[in-house]
Amino acid sequence: MAKTYLSLGSNIGDRKAYLRAAIRLLGKHKDIEIGKISFVYETEPEGYIKQRKFYNLVLELETSLAPKDLLKICNFIEGLLKRERDIKWGPRTIDLDILIYNGDKIDEEGLKIPHPLLCERNFVLVPLLEIAPNVKLPSGVPVRHFFDKLTSVEVKSIGRVDD
Question: Known catalytic residues?
């Protein structure tokens, strides 16, 4: 089983409901076991900024799925939850990104792990470090190293996904 961390985000409709639905759907897969779930954090959008604030969390899971197969499951769940890809970094019902997969480095077309922007985004680093404070990149560099270097971007905890 591969220890994996996913980032989930939503800024359309009932944001917590979309996060809950994605977690529930992941947990129903026979080859995925849900582990720790971070608090939900509200953050400003990045890139395309004329949109509602995001709710973000990070999820730890164990899986026997290969990285490409896990990505297919994530994309399938995004489709089930009506994710549209009209605007780069635009509004979305749900976004699932593989952040870290078993400490592996993967650089294939359509799949880059660790996630290329992992170390640049507080809305990913804060919840990741909450549930995995000692997590390291495949290079052995602690993820916390990057958090300490980021400029302050407000990441506000709003409680658990089931609250």
Answer: 83, 92, 95, 97
- For residue 143, give its domain range: 2-159
In this prediction, residue 89 has a pLDDT band, given cuts at 50, 70 and 90, of low
Mean pLDDT to the nearest integer, 128-157: 86
Q: Which are the contacts of 160, defined by CB distance < 8 A and separation ≥ 6?
A: 37, 39, 40
Angle formed at CA 45 by CA 16 and CA 9, multiple of 5 degrees = 30
What total number of domains does the chain contain? 1
Residues 6+ apart with CB under 8 A from 66: none
CATH number at residue 20: 3.30.70.560
Looking at residue 117, its pLDDT comes to 87
Please name every residue paired with 101 in a beta bridge, in sequence order, or none if there are none. Answer: 4
